[in-house]
Amino acid sequence: MPVCLPRGTPQTYPAARMSTPSKIVFVVGARPNFPKVAPILAALRGREDITPLLVHTGQHYDPELSAMFFEDLGIAPPDVMLGVGSGSHAVQTAHVMMAFETVCLEEQPDAVVVLGDVNSTVACALVASKLHIPVAHVEAGLRSGDRTMPEELNRLVTDQLSERLYTHCREADDNLASEGVPASRVRFVGNVMIDTLLRLRPQSTKPELAGFDLTEHSYGLVTLHRPALVDEPASLRAMIAALSEISSDLPLLYPTHPRSMARLVAAGLVPEGTDARTLPQVAGSRLHLSPPVRYLQFLWLMDHARLVLTDSGGIQEETAVLGVPCLTIRDNTERAVTIEQGTNTLVGTDPADVLVAAAAALSAEARPNRPVPELWDGGAGERIAADLESWLRP
Ligand code: UD1
Asked: How crowded is the C-beta side of 179, counted as CA atoms within 13 Å?
């Protein structure tokens, strides 16, 4: 019978090796990764026994989705930029894998840390695992139960491959236990993205949006970009019609992801060549489009909105901490903790239901007092850094 060490046992370092710092590669690729990595890198600064190396896959490459986030979050430019860009899921994932394998072979890291659920997350987890480099996953254990979502597949695979799983809610621990992940690999550390929000909230800045009134609580904020909502022209038109109707009661600002802008044009909702910087109104309504907004400005927009309507994952969490009512336009969510906590309502994807939910939200209290979920307290980055140290340098 073969004898093997349990998975997740860090390598035993020869004495000489112990004196050199452990090298940890952190992988980021897309916008939601950036606020998550920042607090961990900050917490590792000054720890001499760990050398972090930041690898950006280049899944997001537009300045509004990437470089401006680095600037706002105070993250130094990536040590390695892979520049893989866009493509189908298979093409994008494959390009990240090929490029990241070279990095791992050259750098020989002691561990790889991946974050969230984007294609770069699963691609790099797979590469590292196959090279026998232990993987740690930040934001592990979230499940929507919907395998038509690319992110759900990315989460399932990444968690199975990871030796260390950092969770940010108790439900995530339960999900992992029910999938047979040993509790010895799981650490409940809290929400790193909220570390960033709490740190930067005082520096959030009101954007200059000529022609759109940003008086506190007098506007709504929309983000829709998931394939399930924007890729089919008829459903996109119906959803935009519902949002236009809501905008007669509450003017809406919709910073558009490049994917959404392309789909709005394809569905005939805005003319080809529309410049989002002019804040165009959709179909004469008070629903205004804008280009994507950088982190500090988006934080300000959320914090002062009367209502947020979104299909994003992270925004459900950020509004929970800011205490802003959020309508999640999806049929399921992996962030049930924000619904229990009370700011978030899962309204489904039927435009008629969105109208009803928006009317109810607008007649309710603007900022009901809500408790913040457990350990969403600004200390998650520190807890992860300390655990990485004790894991790799026992
Ligand atoms: C990705 C994540 C999603 C996350 C979102 C946040 C996956 C599977 N999805 O979705 O979970 O909520 O990021 O923004 O990883 N594009 C640009 N410029 C860019 C990047 C993309 O124009 O800098 C366009 C391209 O046409 C591309 C499309 O957007 O084909 C989609 O980009 P992609 O990275 O595949 O996924 P997102 O929709 O951004």
From this structure: 21
259 alpha carbon, distance to own chain's centre: 16
- Does this model's pTM top 0.70? My answer is yes
For residue 224, which amino acid is it?
L
Does residue 286 share a domain with residue 248? yes
Q: Which atom of ligand 1 is nearest to the CA of 259?
A: 29
Q: With respect to residue 6, please indicate whether it lies within any of the assigned structural domains.
A: no
Count Cβ atoms within 10 A of the Cβ of residue 151 and give its class: 0-12 exposed, 13-18 middle, 19 or more buried: buried
Decide whether any atom of ligand 1 lies within 6 Å of the 257 Cβ: yes
For ligand 1, is residue 258 a contact (CB within 6 Å)?
Answer: yes
Q: Which residue has the tokens 């809500």?
A: 370
Q: Give the pLDDT score at 4.
A: 56
- Protein residue closest via CA to atom 35 of ligand 1: 86
Tell me, yes or no, whether 25 and 155 share the same domain: yes
Residue nearest atom 3 in ligand 1 by C-alpha distance = 118
Q: How far apart are alpha carbons 20 and 164 in whole angstroms? A: 22
CA-to-CA distance for 337 and 348, rounded, in angstroms? 17
| 163 shares its domain with 216 | no
The finding on whether 263 has its CB within 6 A of some atom of ligand 1 is: no
Kindly name the residue from 168, 225, 257, 304 that is annotated as catalytic: 225
- CA terminus-to-terminus distance, the chain: 29
* 79-122 pLDDT, tens digit each: 999 999 999 999 999 999 999 999 999 999 999 999 999 999 99
Q: Return the sign of the alpha-carbon dihedral for residues 57, 63, 66, 71.
A: positive
Task: Evaluate whether 381 touches 42 at the Cβ level (below 8 Å).
Answer: yes
Can you give the CATH number for the domain in which 244 is found? 3.40.50.2000
Beta bridge partners of 113: 26, 136
What's the structural domain count of the chain? 2
Annotated active-site residue 225? The verdict is: yes
The vertex-141 CA angle with 135 and 144, nearest 5°, equals 135
